[in-house]
From TrEMBL:
<keyword id="KW-0862">Zinc</keyword>
<dbReference type="Pfam" id="PF04434">
    <property type="entry name" value="SWIM"/>
</dbReference>
<feature type="compositionally biased region" description="Low complexity">
    <location>
        <begin position="116"/>
        <end position="135"/>
    </location>
</feature>
<dbReference type="InterPro" id="IPR007527">
    <property type="entry name" value="Znf_SWIM"/>
</dbReference>
<feature type="compositionally biased region" description="Basic and acidic residues">
    <location>
        <begin position="106"/>
        <end position="115"/>
    </location>
</feature>
<feature type="domain" description="SWIM-type">
    <location>
        <begin position="52"/>
        <end position="85"/>
    </location>
</feature>
<dbReference type="GO" id="GO:0008270">
    <property type="term" value="F:zinc ion binding"/>
</dbReference>
<protein>
    <submittedName>
        <fullName>SWIM zinc finger family protein</fullName>
    </submittedName>
</protein>
<keyword id="KW-0479">Metal-binding</keyword>
<keyword id="KW-0863">Zinc-finger</keyword>
<feature type="region of interest" description="Disordered">
    <location>
        <begin position="106"/>
        <end position="142"/>
    </location>
</feature>
Length: 450
């Protein structure tokens, strides 16, 4: 399966890699091109005497290159994939050379080892499971004490802020927020630190005319989260998982993959990125064509490194997803992925606006800390003006988030006509991530907004 140029460029870790990859997409840059049904490879001559060996596993897709770049995929991987899309006849079919087959075999072995590890964990004897649980409990108890002390400090800070009000909070500058966030990191409550940094972003975001209201809601939610953590044993187990995840506890991928999976034809409908202290996070929204179920896949990259795996918007695959424990499961891992292909049909049917909002209300009732919810809105027309919004055929409107930066491209794609919009809803407004019109999915290069 070969993606088109737009889908390939969406795999790049940043704009500079996409541009550099485009410049390497000419036949003159490459030699020893070849392919099998599942992989392609080639050698790209750089500034040195030895050309860079670049290879792509078309199944995910996945990339490997001998160049020293820490970005993933590097410009050579992007360039090779673009060359395949535009000049497929240059790639001679035949057996893979040793350096390609070794890489493919290694990937297969690692995948099998991960699956075997998950299976062994699930099949552990009662004695082994008890010993592992006892050791984990001892570690968790030590951390629980640190987190509990941090939450007490945070709630005291929030109570002081509530008494003083928000009128002078901007004048205190970012250090006011950074100090308490750093103390939450010390308390091993990284999730609370992230929420405080997000609150700081709201405080100083000049695009938000109602920043005080949004900030007050965020701080109230943060206080509620701390209270929930302090009475964690009283909560239902699924909600306990949500609270622990938001405070900063993690669940191992092995534990997630040991759960029962959901098999479906998954469409990759949207994607956005966010940056936090040298760590980039890429969020991909998937929707099952048969179940209509939503899933979000998270990939992370540190520093200048690229993402370990990539998903391209406007693609789909047959696969099995395993969901993280939650009162309303959305985040998932891909256990199995087959029949990867470009999205050549319309997205799965969109629910009515009433049905979508009812689903959001149900999700919020299960998990009151849910701050983003996927909405697929059909036959809506974007409108500009003092309060930009999406308008349905019945005249009802859905406000656009003040931080949405692609209003004019959205208006141009619509041309005054209805289109299908994939967006995130925060309870007040939507952030469009992609639109489907004239048989094509258009993806906005969004960064997360507060």
């Amino acid at each position: 399966m070969t993606l088109n140029a737009d889908q390939i460029l969406a795999l790049a870790p940043d704009a500079s890699s996409a541009k550099a990859g485009s410049q390497l997409a000419g036949p003159a840059k490459w030699g020893k091109l070849g392919r099998t049904d599942s992989a392609v490879w080639g050698e790209c001559q750089g500034s040195g005497k030895v050309p860079y060996r670049t290879q792509i596993d078309l199944g995910e897709p996945a990339f490997k290159c001998s160049c020293p770049s820490r970005k993933f995929p590097c410009k050579h991987g992007i360039g090779l994939y673009l060359l395949l899309a535009s000049h497929a006849a240059l790639f001679a079919a035949g057996p893979a050379p040793q350096w390609v087959s070794d890489w493919l075999d290694g990937r297969q072995q690692r995948s099998e080892k991960k699956q075997q590890s998950a299976a062994e964990k699930a099949a552990a004897t009662p004695e082994q499971a008890a010993a592992q649980a006892a050791a984990a409990h001892k570690r968790e108890e030590k951390r629980d004490n640190k987190v509990a002390a941090g939450i007490v400090e945070l709630q005291t800070w929030l109570e002081d802020l509530a008494r003083e009000g928000l009128s002078t909070v901007r004048a205190r500058g970012p250090a006011f927020w950074n100090d308490i966030a750093a103390r939450m990191v010390d308390a091993q409550a990284g999730g609370l630190a992230a929420r405080l940094r997000r609150a700081s972003g709201m405080c100083f975001d000049t695009r938000l005319p109602d920043w005080e209201t949004r900030l007050a809601r965020e701080l109230a939610s943060l206080y509620l989260l701390g209270s929930a953590c302090r009475r964690l044993p009283d909560l239902a187990p699924p909600l306990q998982s949500d609270v622990r995840a938001l405070v900063g506890w993690t669940v191992s991928q092995e534990d997630v993959l040991a759960q029962a999976g959901v098999q479906d034809r998954w469409q990759v409908l949207a994607q956005h990125t966010s940056d936090s202290e040298r760590v980039r996070a890429r969020t991909s929204w998937l929707r099952g064509t048969r179940s209509g179920r939503w899933a979000t896949i998270m990939h992370y990259a540190a520093g200048t490194q690229g993402y370990d795996k990539v998903l391209a918007p406007a693609t789909e695959f047959d696969g099995e997803l395993c969901f993280y424990p939650s009162a309303y499961p959305l985040r998932a891992l891909i256990r199995q992925q087959d029949a990867f292909a470009p999205l050549d049909t319309t997205p799965a049917p969109a629910p009515t606006l009433d049905a979508a909002l009812a689903a959001y209300a149900d999700a919020l009732a299960r998990n009151p800390f849910l701050d983003r919810f996927p909405l697929l809105l059909d036959a809506v027309v974007p409108r500009a003006g003092a309060a930009p919004h999406l308008e349905g055929a019945d005249g009802r409107i859905v406000p656009l988030h003040a931080g949405f930066r692609h209003l004019w491209p959205l208006l141009a794609l619509s041309g005054g006509h209805p289109l299908t919009v994939m967006a995130e809803w925060d309870g007040d407004a939507v952030i469009p991530l992609s639109v489907f019109t004239e048989g094509r999915l258009h993806h906005f290069d969004n960064e997360t907004v507060a």
